[in-house]
Design a protein that fits this description.
Layout: E1 2-6, H1 15-23, H2 36-49, E2 52-55, H3 65-74, E3 81-84, E4 89-92, E5 95-98, H4 100-109, E6 116-121, E7 135-137, H5 146-157
Parallel strand pairs: 1-2, 1-6, 2-3, 6-7
Antiparallel strand pairs: 4-5
Length: 159
């Protein structure tokens, strides 16, 4: 099984897509539109590798799997969300923050078989040890671009 550990902000939700969402809001409410190029690139990787999605973004604290799946569908993402990683905090300079690397490692330990996986995130400092080789880091302004798509697909096609 192939798994994509997916952050949202800086990967699908870029500065440009957020600006467009704000410009297009109406009295009926705010509708978030992900970056179209990033969505298409994610769809290509999912379709070519049959990857499943696990959300690592802080969005998991404000959404259920079902509401995230609906948001994905509304934005044209053709992928199933298999779940969220759990929470793991660490203290850094007296500030408590999420340890995404440990959250992913904990999720992997809970699986019967370790899947082939890649991590899509715009924040490289979250991955200092074990997962650095599996990280495809995205530019937060541009999101999940063509270069990142190729790197993610190649990583998932390696066994």
């Amino acid at each position: 099984m192939n798994v994509i550990f997916l952050d949202i902000d800086g990967v699908l939700n870029t500065a440009g897509s957020l600006r467009r969402s704000l410009e297009n809001q109406s009295y009926s409410g705010f509708h978030l539109s992900f970056d179209h190029g990033a969505v298409e690139n994610l769809n290509k990787v999912v379709e070519s590798t049959k990857a499943h999605i696990v959300i690592i973004s802080s969005w998991r604290f404000h959404h259920t799997v079902e509401s995230m799946q609906q948001l994905f569908t509304e934005n044209g993402i053709r992928a199933n969300i298999n779940g969220f990683t759990g929470s793991c905090f660490e203290n850094v300079d007296r500030i408590q923050r999420h340890n995404r690397e440990q959250e992913i490692l904990n999720w992997l330990e809970e699986q019967h078989e370790t899947p082939n996986f890649v991590v899509l995130d715009d924040e490289g400092s979250n991955y200092l040890r074990a997962l650095q080789p599996r990280l495809v880091r995205c530019d937060p302004l541009d999101g999940f671009g063509n270069e990142e798509r190729l790197r993610a697909a190649m990583a998932l096609m390696k066994k």
